[in-house]
Task: structure prediction
Amino acid sequence: MRYAGKAFLIRAMAKLIHDEGIGLDVVSEGELYTALSAGFPPSDIEMNGNAKSRREIQYSVDSGVGRIIVDHPDELKTIEEYAEKAGRVQRVMIRVAPGVDAHTHKYIATGSTDSKFGVPADSREGSMLTEAIRFARTCPHIDMTGLHFHVGSQLFETEDFTKSVEVILRLMKSLKDNLNFTTHELNMGGGFGAVINPSIPAMKSEFYTEPMMKTLVDGCKSYGLEIPCAILEPGRWIISEAGITLYTVENVRELPEITYIAVNGGMSDNPRYALYQAEYNAVKIDDVDGEIYRPSNGGKVSIVGKCCESGDILIDDAEIQRVKAGDVIALYNTGAYTFSMSSTYNCLPRPAVVFVENGEAKVVAERQSLEDIIRGQSV
Ligand SMILES: *Cc1c(COP(=O)(O)O)cnc(C)c1O
Result:
């Protein structure tokens, strides 16, 4: 199991993930640097990413990352060059697009054959994939251990996963028959759905892994293939529920059709509604079980941010207790893709991150200061 660090990665999170015995998937030199600075063992890290720079590849090889997930065949030349210089053999896997259109928002679907990620799962002679495997074999400092795919995110059914595994099995079989290529490792990506509504618990991992593993094992048996070491790398499923964002209400604006609750943050700390209409739940923290506020005019209640965009919405149609300026509200399930996607839009400093365990709170990322906003700038 690996954790997809892009969901939320700060040094304390890297440490926590390592302490839990989980590996890490990173997609940039910044993520790799963050993890290494927290003492994460490089051999438990894999470097992913659809547009790795030469410097990122060099940094990955020199740091000794366990695997580089090759997303474009051109990477192989660069990996060989730096691995030779470093005098080591770099393990790599190749990312394929299984051609399964995940049932999710198109911005988080990544597995179709026209995706910007990976090489098409096509084993015909002369395809990108067969050429890449052939080329890798000519590289003495590259060891290609297997295949990687990631079909999409926020999936609540298992069909997209099992369909992808079926495609990959056929691919594994023809790569074995045509190129004598053995898939020793198969990374099946992430994408397990994270809870939206706290009253509905998350699916257990077995909900996804049992049908995936059954498809894989049965398929390998019927095709006469070696069963590869199976790897998963969920992000949001691991961290989403662990995160709660606290906001202070700045004002409440009751208009004839709609009531706006405006808070002291917004798309700068959580752009996910603006990006792909992510859904959230909120409560007034000192009145969690209180009655839901229904404006007398029958209009909806929207929780909005303080950024200068009408699309700066946190919850479009919220169910929340009556609040007034100064009240604190909590948004649940904000652990994934919020802090990691945050910006300083409108020169708003990033919020602090606080870990809470057994009633004890610890600041693990300080709230940004105004000096942080202008750091490195000159006039
Ligand atoms: C984004 C991503 C993940 C994690 O996705 P989640 O939906 O957060 O589980 C895993 N692997 C790859 C390659 C990704 O791009």
